[in-house]
Design goal:
globular, eleven-stranded mixed sheet, 18 helices, 566 residues, two-stranded antiparallel sheet, alpha/beta
């Protein structure tokens, strides 16, 4: 090496270290600036933690520089793991610097001395920034996209522009080839009929698959935030079909996708005119004095409110209830808590004071950005930079089929659940003219939570064990909000945990510490539990509905096919 070369490299190294030192100073100033924003608590840092972080940052930066002089930096992140990244020193170095900066910013977040909610909000903001600024999101740095453009002689770029224009037209990023799916044709195909409808929902009854059925019908209330067919995607993974095959006369609520005619709908309407009405209709069709019911996610919250209203009226039409990944006690709401405070809720209350709709695309975007790398930027890179068409996937088709929410209903829900947690304060919340008091809801419960759920954390679903006085069974499944629930036995995937049915410590971790792990699906465990509350077996009905409730149209009905629009 010549003297000039040595001097050049020395100078370059000094400039590199100076650049990183400047980055450190800017990052720290940016963090400290957050503490001066309105309504934001002052941020402070322990000096020793800051010094440790700075030393670590400069040491890793120097090591990265020295490594880059000898070879292409090795980057351990699946976004940069392709062969093209390893053969492109500029892109690999950009990725390595990006990961170092991200780690350091997250370290600053951990070192910030502030309240838990502020720290969570800063962490969420850093995660969003990190996901959005990854070198893989930019053609100038994405080595794989560049290589594909070369290999296809620019065709991938042309297709990417076409995909971008298509997604702009439809109003959302394509996660799958939506043209390959049709509700009622290749998703939501379990045979049945609509046997009742009002302005809020259709009630579906499914054709029995067994010669005999249990005398107590089974009603399933899915979340109103999404469409019911997540529980009936394909015959092999349909929880609805599974319930029917177990001998239950099965009914499902199919929520109407609200339009302007429902812009003044309230939480009370959803409880009285959907949940309670559906229970009443299923009782009459039975005919039976009691039914069994299941609520999934916010459908479970609505069911719990219906049960509390009925109990306050001295009625007990439900023999047992199942809550799947349901929040009733909203103390542990996970990452969604970062959005909720008094100002946010007041804004929504003002926005919908005279009615209105919470648009489905806005709800869908919020949930997608809870997992930005998997549900946003992954498709930005594939669709637009690489010009790829995402493969057909029924789950992601369902995920893209968004639903609106009535504004007044949504605003009431925010204040009384996420913000003030009023449902578990006896007598605090009023629903359908009755005081909600879950101490009066005394019936057997099956409560399921998913261990890695980012929407209903396992502690949140477990908290229901502390709310109700009756017999309970709590089961924890592996995986997340959807994959944990949709886990058919035939797939032989994942596992679940069970514990005592009589002892429920307040802390979910104490329960987990004593729980027993079982391979496979939790569905058979639930089926055995439900069988004990279903009554005797009787001949399966040969017609749909009964009396004034007659078949209106084939399942899955009209309501589920209505799109939310842009």
């Amino acid at each position: 090496m010549t003297q000039d070369s040595a001097q050049f490299l020395t100078g370059a190294a000094e400039e590199f270290q100076k650049s990183f030192a400047d980055n450190w100073a800017k990052a720290l100033a940016s963090f400290q600036g957050m503490g001066t924003a309105p309504d934001m608590p002052q941020l402070t840092f322990a000096p020793e933690k800051l010094q440790e972080l700075q030393q670590q940052y400069l040491a890793e930066a120097t090591a990265l520089w020295n490594q880059s002089l000898q070879a292409t930096p090795e980057v351990k992140d699946r976004r940069f793991s392709g062969e093209a990244w390893r053969h492109n020193p500029v892109s690999a170095f950009a990725a390595a610097v990006y990961l170092l900066n991200t780690r350091t910013l997250m370290g600053l977040t951990d070192a910030a001395e502030t309240d838990a909610k502020t720290k969570a909000r800063i962490q969420f903001a850093i995660e969003q920034w990190s996901a959005a600024t990854a070198p893989s999101n930019f053609l100038a740095f994405n080595a794989e996209a560049q290589q594909k453009a070369i290999d296809t002689q620019g065709e991938s770029i042309s297709k990417g522009i076409h995909n971008l224009l298509h997604d702009m037209e439809q109003g959302h990023v394509s996660m799958t080839d939506e043209s390959l799916f049709e509700v009622g044709k290749n998703v939501a195909t379990t045979e049945g009929r609509v046997v009742f409808e009002n302005e809020f929902f259709q009630l579906l009854e499914y054709k029995p698959l067994t010669a005999k059925v249990y005398e107590r019908p089974f009603l399933l209330i899915p979340p109103c935030i999404n469409k019911f067919y997540i529980l009936d995607l394909q015959p092999e993974n349909s929880l609805i079909r599974y319930a029917v095959s177990q001998g239950h006369r099965t009914f499902v609520v199919s929520w109407r996708n609200p339009d302007e005619s429902l812009q003044n709908t309230t939480w009370d309407d959803y409880v009285q005119d959907v949940a309670i009405k559906a229970i009443s209709v299923v009782q009459e069709i039975g005919p039976t004095p009691q039914i069994n019911a299941l609520g999934f996610c916010v459908g479970g919250t609505i069911l719990s409110n219906a049960l509390a209203v009925l109990a306050a009226r001295g009625e007990k039409p439900v023999a047992s209830a199942t809550f799947l990944t349901t929040l009733i006690d909203f103390q542990d709401t996970g990452v969604l808590d970062v959005f909720i405070d008094e100002n946010f809720v007041k804004y929504r209350e003002g926005q919908f004071a005279q009615g209105g709709l919470m648009k489905g695309k806005d709800m869908a975007s919020t949930f997608s950005f809870l997992r930005p790398n998997d549900l946003v930027w992954n498709y930005v890179v594939g669709n637009y930079l690489k010009g790829e068409t995402p493969p057909p996937f029924d789950l992601l088709y369902w995920n893209s089929d968004s639903t609106n929410l009535p504004g007044p209903m949504y605003a009431w829900y925010l204040r009384n659940t996420y913000l003030e947690n009023n449902l578990v304060k006896p007598g605090k919340a009023k629903v359908c003219g009755e005081s909600v008091d879950f101490r009066k809801v005394d019936l057997p419960l099956y409560i399921y939570g998913s261990r890695e759920d980012h929407i209903v954390p396992i502690g949140g679903s477990y908290a229901s064990t502390q709310v109700f006085p009756g017999k309970k069974r709590f089961v924890m499944g592996a995986s997340g909000h959807i994959a944990g629930v949709i886990n058919p036995p035939a797939a032989k995937k994942r596992c679940y945990w069970t514990g005592s049915d009589t002892s429920f410590p307040k802390d979910v971790n104490q329960w987990i510490g004593k729980a027993k792990e079982h391979p496979g699906s939790w569905w058979p465990d639930w089926a055995n539990w439900l069988k004990a509350h279903a009554g005797k077996q009787i001949a399966a009905p040969k017609t749909y509905g009964k009396g004034r409730y007659k078949a209106i149209e084939n399942a899955p009905g009209r309501y589920v096919k209505a799109r939310a629009g842009k």
